[in-house]
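[step 3/7] fold_predict: job queued, chain A
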Amino acid sequence: MSKEQNKALLSRIIKEVFNQGKISLIDDLLAPGFVEHEELPPGIPPGREAVKQHCTLFRSAFPDLKVTIDDTIAEGDKVAVRCTWSGTHEGEFMGIPPTGKSVSFGVIDIVRIAGGKVVEHWGQMDAMRMMQQLGAISTPGA
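[step 4/7] structure written:
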């Protein structure tokens, strides 16, 4: 696939799976042997199931979840995106009861694509900023 096709595949995952909640697309867009390298919350299994449960976790806690792609870079078989995730905390999230607070935090994702499907993912999320906005941890100097 071309760099543009690879970028479009990752964009589709973000827009349709995470923003629209079309979790059933994961099996079509991620290879059966998909490997998740991101450290995820306890209890989330590996492989495509990790992405399904991660998406469900966030969409349940933040029903208005919106992932905005800020930058996309493609090189060879890899695509990197810098995104802003935002939403309103209306459901339990990792033991934190709903607060009604809005959050906005950065995420960087890198995927490797082969055969028209995502085969590997690495991700970094600014979880500290999200937890500070939820009031789960204190903000220095506040």
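[step 5/7] annotate
The longest strand covers residues 102-114.
The first helix runs from residue 3 to 19.
exit 0
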